[in-house]
Fold each of these.
Amino acid sequence: MTDLSFRALFLGAYLLLISACTDSSPVFHETERPLRLSDWQLFSVDVSELAPSESSVVFRPNNPLFTDYAHKLRTLWIPQGLQADIIDSEISYPVGTVISKTFYYPRASGTALLKIADSGLQKINLDENQLLETRLLVRKSDGWDAFPYVWNDEQSEAFLRVAGASKPISLSGQDSAEPSNFTYFVPNENQCAGCHTTVHPDGDMHPLGAILSQLNVAVSESELSNSSPLEQMVARGWISDVEDFPRSESWQDPSASLEDRALAYLNMQCGHCHNPQGAADTSGLILDSSQTLAINRGVCKPPVAAGGGAGDLRYAIVPGHPEESILLYRMRSDKPDEMMPELGRSLIHDEGIDLISRWIEEMPGSC
Amino acid sequence: MKFSTLRTFSIAGAALLLASCGNEEPTMPELSFEEALQEQLIQAKAGDVITIPAGVHEITRSLSLNVSGVTIAGAGIDESILSFKNQVQGAEGLLVSANDFVIRDLAIEDTIGDAIKINESSNVQVLRVRTEWTGGPLSTNGAYGIYPVQSNNVLIDEAVAIGASDAGIYVGQSSQIIVRNSRAEYNVAGIEIENSTFADVHDNVTTNNTGGILVFDLPNLPVQGGRNTRVYDNQIFDNNTANFAPEGNIVAGVPAGTGLMIMANDNIEVFGNNFIDNNSANVLIVSYLINELPITDPNYDPFPEAIYIHNNQYTGGGETPDSEPLGLLQAATGQPIPDIVWDGMLSPGKTAADALCFSESAETSFVSLDASNGFAQPSFDAAAHDCALPRLSAISMSLSSQ
């Protein structure tokens, strides 16, 4: 090899590296398990901003999961030239697809963080926000794989933490109440699969947010842009335009009935395990809206293996009596052996409790 | 340019370029014992043996294993201890969903919820494993010690389970089960086989539990129709610990002082056991109706049938029954509660002999409680149950030795 060709090679490598520092396309890793998030090139990170690659679509699902009031920046990327198919009314992503979810909190003064509504930022200002973790779901040739990356204190890099991580958080509301001090948990890879494998144990992991009904956001409600994530995907040629996409109900939709909102909430927060084939079917409590028999949905259903999680109560749901309902007791608990969901939160979700409480309050019947 | 020089230059260049991204090279965090163990469990391959060294290892988050063909091996039931005393996350100590799983020679202590939960797994061996809540029997203890559920081919051998607020060894919604040579103490239920089929429970010691051994079938579960369980050659004595289960749980209804309790199961053979001083009743056979809970499951049969009890030994027991109907019975007769107690509730069209047969020594006492009629006319006449049933087959399973 001549000096000249070496120089050309080096120049190429130089340009490649330079481009990694500015906007560039994400990179798919089929076999490697990069220890650094930056190896995926999903974001440009400088001292003041985390910005998704322009090759990605930023999205927010219709019916998001509660995670300790953390804000979430979600991206979806399909390698250039590839397309997703619609199979059985669901998106089948091509190998190479990378979905990311970055969890962060707005900063208050000092080390305290702020509990305020997620405004759906497209980029994260690092002076005003504290990054916690970025979770990836990557479509490999043998299925989806999950990667939890945890940001360092300098917010300069996130490292793969196969076994998860934990971080003490002090979260202040806008009122002058005392901040909530809690431990924020980054899931380990098995825990990722715990939610993303909805058919247990032989099913495969799959996305929960980047699915057709979740991405089909009504444009007027979209906080991100003038087009829904699904429309952006069509515009990029990632999926072909299909009429009548399904749309999932949102627990936050003020125009939906109380019942629909409650069921949407339970479906999203609980249905990934509490479905007829899920890990929690052992309990006989099915919360994914598939059941017609009231007892299977928890109405007047005695606990099976709840232990202390039953809170000395007799039934999962007692119509008209949220205070006697185990379901609500477990939502209100922040003890690891009692609370539901078992994973994904350390705080209780006041708005969800309020919704389910009103739903049970208005439910007719008795046990 | 020579190759070596060039390489040096390239590395220097790359370092420079990385620096030009605006950051110094960030450093990887170090892993704790717990994180390293969990990482091993995640990255394990079939055939791996993950060793837990002797010593007390503090674990704060649930451990989990999803990889089939893995063995977790400690240095001994009292040597390798995973202590969850300061657990802050997870509803169990170890959660397993993996076939061909072996866990042996270690202890799991003081988990905040269940100690070892094994969900939807086949070919499971729990050998010389201790699960214990070290503060004694408290309602704040986790529900289950060793807890395989919806699993097949489960062998629990030489295990020790202490202090569970539900069941020490609990096998639920499973099939092909052997629980043997194990010891269960100070749990609400020592050993419980629930909504399961084809189980052998033998050569165990259950003592100081609320109930020694339970064989239950419950409604509204994806797997039900519990049947074909043999309970034999067990030592079942002094299971008189006050019931400390949280209310609402089905075992909260188990009277303190229960030796063996069979609820709504069919085809159960009980023989060669030694029942001593279980102070509500040495053997209690009931229908699910005794709980006075509504049954909305059309596929559920609440009545026990084809229960065959023979060649057991009974010493003492029934002295201080922890149950209103049993208490009234004792008050009425001035005698201890008989060795074998049946609630007397029958499925329509069935006879007493369809429910329960026994061949015991002449001095073995019996009562049918007449529960369907508000316990109005208990009967001590065992003649209707003087019958024999075909012996059940032994469970055989071929599991790889680890």
Amino acid sequence: MQPNTLSRALANGAIWGFIVLELIFFSVAGSYLSISDQAFMDYDNMLLLLKQSAPIGIIAMGMTLVMVNGNIDLSVGATFAIAAIVLLDSMTWPIFAGLGDWVIPVAWLLSLLVGTLLGALNGLIVWKTGVDAFIVTLGSMLGYRGIVFMFNGENPTSHLNWTLVDFAEAEFLGLATASWFLLAVTAGIWFLMARTVHGRNAYAIGDNREAAVNAGIRVGPHMMINFAIIGFLAALSAVVFYSESGSVNPNDGQLYELWVITAVVLGGTKITGGAGNVIGTFGGVIAIQLLRKGLGHIGADTSTVNLVIGLILIAVLFLDRQLNIKGKEELKV
Amino acid sequence: MATLTKQQIGSVLAKQGILIAFVIFMIAFTIANPKFLTMDNVFSVVRSSAILGVMALGVTFVVISGNLDLSVGSMMSFSTIVVLDLHDKIGPFMAIPAMFAMTLCLGAFIGFLVGYLRLNSLIVTLGMLSAIHGLTLTYSGGQNMDIADKEGTWFSVFGQGTALGIPVPILIFIALAALLGLTLAKTPFGRKVYAVGGNGTAATFSGIPRARTVFFCYLISAACVATAGLIQASRSLGSQNTVGQGLELEVLAAVILGGASLLGGSGTVFKTVIGVLILGFIQNGLLLMGLQFYIQFVVTWVIIILAVWLDIAAKRGKLWSAIA
């Protein structure tokens, strides 16, 4: 038993405790303040919450991987928008005209491919130039967003395909398509991080990059793969979301990186790398969505949501540090 | 000197690379379009860069001290909205100091969290980005803010006036740059900022008050943001709640372009000014060349990465990184 097991367990479980607190608070407060008769912890409401968590949640899983690596990706929102445009626009391309509804999987693949490539490009630059991931993705966040605007100016790109909408709105075993995608991605990345060599290397690199190099891990390609994964997931998130909505604004996905990073940090991933897991991130995603929905339920507007989430992020950082200091002091003894 | 070694060239490039790039850009754009280097055009570029520039001056302090400030964009929206609102309620004479006080409070709060509590500045300012945006929306009730009597107020002087034939925003920018440049380069406080950013532990052991230094860096940043908000408010005399949204990244881009390392300890106010001007002139030059407005984002992306890459490459003496 390590001395800091207790504080670590506290830190890992904190997000779930926080979710329970939110549920209780909004249920109680909702019964006094809410205009609607519906209870907050309504089954349908919770299912809807899971579905609404999907766009942020899918990207957050990739961000967990990248942040455990000790990197960060600020360009996910722009990648999301590019992938969405590729998805909707490619369905109208004349070369695919003869495909009928088979154009859907083709458009999906194209969109996912573009996302993966954009992510890999970030990774390649980080690897080959040695420039910090923060700067690289800050630059590509501007650059990718510029590409989005160059495509269609400030106009939205729209294309509605009813077969696609039907698929996206379908429910399987009571869960919406988007929810299934979120759960599948969570499971997939969990397996990757917890049960494979690649996952073990991710923690090793984030913990001590030099030691990882000395242990024979090829850090560059490893990080590039992780950036490709987060690019893929940003595109997947766009695929899931825009299959249903059918119209993308050039500003869509802006500030997604902030929501995603907030969710990941709330879930206990260290910004310096080496620690974190997708289960915590899943909790972080749910906690944020719960907060947005709950505050709406008791009649607060979006401004309060922004205010509260910002302050909670800082509070979590503070508490997390206090717990860690305690752990370190115990180690010294 | 005919016998410059490769390394010497490398170090000259690394030290003055951004200045050389700036001159090359200016020459190229002037050849492409003779209108580029006219007085009118230069004034209009510098005037429109002034808001970004003033914010970048403050962020330079924060970055040199080894921290980040992502909250300057939403803080600028806040100060713009507040000063516009108070202008009609208590008059411009009182509104300006009141707005400065409120913005400085926000800066002090961030400085306390990052300086004294030693929390990670990226996450803290990310949280504050969201929180201050919420605060602004709550303050304004989500409404656009407008000054009732736009013709009869002297308040517009900060954004629209001219003195000695030079637009006031440019004068404010130059004055602040000179003041903060001297503070950073010539005062004990400036040296402390470099020491804290270069090696925080060593700074602590040599008796430099690390927490207080970081705290004051954020105060300076907030003061610059408030000034930028003042210029913005006075220029437009009305504003949306999201006027500063996304500016934090452009500001950071300008600071990085100027050669300040995100690890802290390096960078100067003068180089940041160059970074700001490069961004402004590139945007303008591309437009004058008849290119689409949005291509500037792509060009900025390429330039940022090239600038930082070459800077690092010159320091390590190799173009490609050593990452396996």
